[in-house]
Amino acid sequence: MQENEIPRLGGWSEAELDRAFAAVAREVEKSAASIRSAEDKEQYRLRWLGRRQGRLKAISDAWLKGAPDLDTKKRIGQRFNTLKAEIDRLLELAGAGESGSELDAEAIDITLPGTQRKLGAEHPLIRTWNEIVAVFQRMGYSVGVGPEVETDYYNFESLNFPPGHPARDTQDTLVIVGQERKPLRDRLLMRTHTSPVQIRTMEQQQPPVRIIIPGKVHRNDAADATHYPIFHQVEGLCVDTNITFGDLKGTLDAAMKAFFGSSVKTRFFPSFFPFTEPSADVQISCPFCGGAGCRKCKQSGWIELLGCGMVDPAVFGFVQGKQPGYDPKKVSGFAFGMGIDRIAMMKYGIGDIGLLYSGDLRFLEQFA
Ligand code: DAH
User: Fold this and answer.
1) From the CA of 155, how far away is ligand 1's center (Å)?
2) What is the pLDDT along the chain (368 residues), one digit of tens a residue?
3) Which of 239, 275, 305, 332 for mutating ligand 1's site (highest number of atoms within 8 Å of CB)?
4) CA-to-CA distance for 18 and 112, rounded, in angstroms?
5) What ligand 1 atom has the least distance to the C-alpha of 193?
């Protein structure tokens, strides 16, 4: 058979098709045997499989054109598929194992070092978040979440910050634009704390509740070394019968010891939050100097870490309409909230909160 000549088909019987295809298959095999280099291989591929000038295409066009019916076309088509698979197989094999051929130069050198993939690491903030959550999980708390875009009702009103109350001024709020026509309680804002999830949780479930809620919060704060318009808090809520201030102190003391080490002491000072009564600020003895005084505790030996208190009966009052189990005469509870960023900064000696949000690899790689 001549180069590029289209072999003739002497009929459409199975026997004739078999004969004609066997002849082409021999040609396919013969020309594959002379592949020596990568260039030969590409030539071979083009010669047989080339989309426009390929020999297989030319033969199939010629043979299919004359086919008398669909069944014959099908039988021819199937044979072409087999032939094509054979060419692919020969291409795959071509040159493999022929030592000294140019193809060997392209083979994979298994003695080369592999591609190193960089391992990611937990962000220091997330690591701290997980560690705090784990401490409370071991004490039987479940984990909750809530929305970052919140209504005025959940962020303030139901937490006993009535409209116009001066306590609202303690949280410099970022509001969503275009809400003026809604009643105040439905207006959207970026939540300024994780406390609204206390209400959302109680609306969803009857007491008893033991829940820990980590999350992102937003305030209209100018960025400096210790402030950033985004930061993170962990909220805690425990509601049951006969929960006392003693339970609050015991829980937070145990949690601080679990997190910072068993020699850490806690102390409670009277404070004010609209949604707790009484309220307290909690300080821990400085875990770095043991209370002797150092730079981290500004020489005082103590570090203020969180706010807490007994859930104000007025807060239960807001929930009771939806969940009658929160009768302030029957249940009591405590809540607490702490900043994750500050704890992470203290723990890892980070001097500027902005570094936590910079995405700067030179900073982040130190935690890998
Ligand atoms: N939500 C308060 C804040 O962001 C923190 C806080 C204080 C949370 C006392 C509480 C709590 O649950 O009982 O300033």
Assistant:
1) 11
2) 556 678 888 888 999 999 999 989 998 888 888 888 888 888 899 999 888 888 888 888 888 888 889 999 999 999 999 999 999 898 888 766 555 455 556 678 888 888 888 888 899 999 999 999 999 999 999 999 999 999 999 999 999 999 999 999 999 999 999 999 999 999 999 999 999 999 999 999 999 999 999 999 999 999 999 999 999 999 999 999 999 999 999 999 999 999 999 999 999 999 999 999 999 999 999 999 999 999 889 999 999 999 999 999 999 999 999 999 999 999 999 999 999 999 999 999 999 999 999 999 999 999 98
3) 275
4) 48
5) 4
Distance between CA atoms of 129 and 283, rounded to whole angstroms?
19
Ligand 1 centroid, distance to 235 Cα (angstroms):
7
Contact at 8 Å (CB) between 259 and 130?
Answer: no
333 within ligand 1 shell (Cβ under 6 A): no
**Half-sphere exposure for 213 (CA within 13 Å, toward CB):** 27
Whether ligand 1 lies within 6 angstroms of the CB of 251 is answered as no
**Does residue 215 line the site of ligand 1, with CB under 6 A?**
no
Ligand 1 lined by 334 (C-beta under 6 Å) = no
- Tokens of residue 62, six digits: 């010629």
What is the radius of gyration, based on Cα positions, of the chain? 37
The rounded distance, in Å, linking the Cα atoms of 207 and 201 is: 10
